[in-house]
Write a sequence for this structure.
């Protein structure tokens, strides 16, 4: 059982989900860990969702790659390497630093309200021992009411901070 | 037999696998081996649609003195596959066991 206490993940009978809100966007600069770099004066927000594989990996086993398999909304299937309109899924990465073995998937908050919906995000994680783990979680893209602006400010990432770790 | 990670229903042991996962599945035979008897060879048969892989450790299956391991990949979500394992021991005993692999998209 994954402990989601004090994280931004939610759980229902199907499993875990993460909410990304549509709405007004500020001009902000975010540095995305572990990808490095920064994004200046752009009207979007980004989230890094990190899944910790530490407890599943054997001694000496490390993540060597992780990638999107598919990102689906209802019957709309986007194959590996593709992206939904608006580029909601940006890229994947990983870190084996210290005692953490995170597979990380980076999403961008989109501006297009037509993107609202619940998506199935399927991913794959490769390790140096040749194992290939796979899983699915959901992204709920919702339109934020105007009076929720202050909540959105709390949702912003700090520089160098992972968001939505499980 | 030890069934860590396996589940049990009225038909026997099964395990859930994601169609995009390639993982190794081990059976511990120490409960059926008598005295100092050990596994000398192993063979696996996998139902069509599910495949063995040599991506882990360079071989499709392997064994130790008391365990056997098969590396499985693929499968179609919503399908159940049968896997058969046969071991022969140093004392020329032969044991056969089956388990099922239920392939489904694994939700976090």
């Amino acid at each position: 059982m994954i402990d989601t206490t004090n994280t931004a993940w939610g759980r229902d009978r199907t499993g875990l989900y993460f909410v990304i809100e549509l709405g007004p966007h500020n001009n902000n600069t975010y540095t995305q860990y572990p990808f490095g770099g920064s994004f200046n004066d752009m009207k979007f927000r980004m989230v890094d969702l990190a899944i910790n594989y530490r407890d599943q990996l054997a001694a000496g086993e490390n993540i060597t790659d992780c990638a999107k398999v598919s990102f689906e909304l209802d019957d709309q299937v986007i194959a590996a390497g593709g992206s939904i309109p608006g580029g909601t899924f940006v890229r994947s990465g990983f870190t084996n630093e210290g005692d953490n073995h995170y597979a990380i998937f980076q999403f961008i908050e989109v501006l297009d309200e037509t993107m609202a919906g619940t998506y199935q995000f399927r991913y794959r994680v490769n390790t140096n021992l040749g194992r290939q783990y796979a899983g699915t979680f959901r992204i709920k893209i919702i339109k934020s009411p105007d009076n929720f602006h202050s909540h959105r400010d709390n949702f912003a990432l700090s520089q160098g901070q992972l968001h939505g770790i499980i | 037999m030890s069934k860590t990670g396996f589940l049990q229903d009225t038909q026997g042991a099964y395990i859930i696998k994601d169609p995009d996962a390639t993982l190794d599945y081990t059976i511990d035979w120490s409960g059926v081996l008598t005295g100092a008897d050990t596994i000398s060879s192993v063979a696996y048969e996998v139902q069509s649609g599910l495949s063995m892989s040599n991506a882990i450790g360079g071989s499709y299956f392997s064994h130790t003195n008391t365990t056997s391991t098969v590396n499985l990949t693929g499968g179609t979500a919503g399908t159940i596959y049968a896997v058969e394992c046969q071991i022969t021991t140093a004392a020329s005993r032969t044991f056969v066991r089956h388990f099922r692999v239920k392939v489904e998209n694994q939700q976090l």
Observations:
- DSSP finds one helix and eleven strands in chain A.
